[in-house]
Amino acid sequence: MLEIRPNCECCDRDLSPHDEAYICTFECTWCGDCVERFPGRACPNCRGDLQRRPTRPAEALVRHPASTVRVVSGDGAGSA
After folding, report:
1. pLDDT along the chain (80 residues), means of 10
2. Is the model's pTM score more than 0.70?
């Protein structure tokens, strides 16, 4: 199950479970503004393909809430 992280790993912007966000296969999570600045729109951590994060239906969020753990790499160049 996806963690649905609460923030952009690059700029630390809050991202609700329903906001548009992008993830790689390691679930590195990015806002759209930061993704636009990444070369080739690839994950700066693993260089993997970024896809729009799916949304979890509200009723499912009750049973399976989004993560509250914030991950920040500072410059968007951490390691996955």
Report:
1. 96 96 97 97 96 95 95 64
2. yes
- How are strands ordered across the β-sheet holding 29-31? 29-31, 21-23, 51-52
Residue 80 lies in a domain: no
Whole-angstrom distance, CA of residue 28 vs CA of residue 73: 10
Q: Which domain holds residue 61?
A: 1-65
Query: Which pLDDT score is estimated for 78?
Result: 47
Write down the pLDDT at residue 8. 98
**In-domain check, residue 74:** no
What whole-number distance in Å separates Cα of residue 63 and Cα of residue 56?
11
3-class SS at 52? strand
The residue count of the chain comes to 80
CA distances from 1 to 10, 36, 40 (A): 23, 26, 27
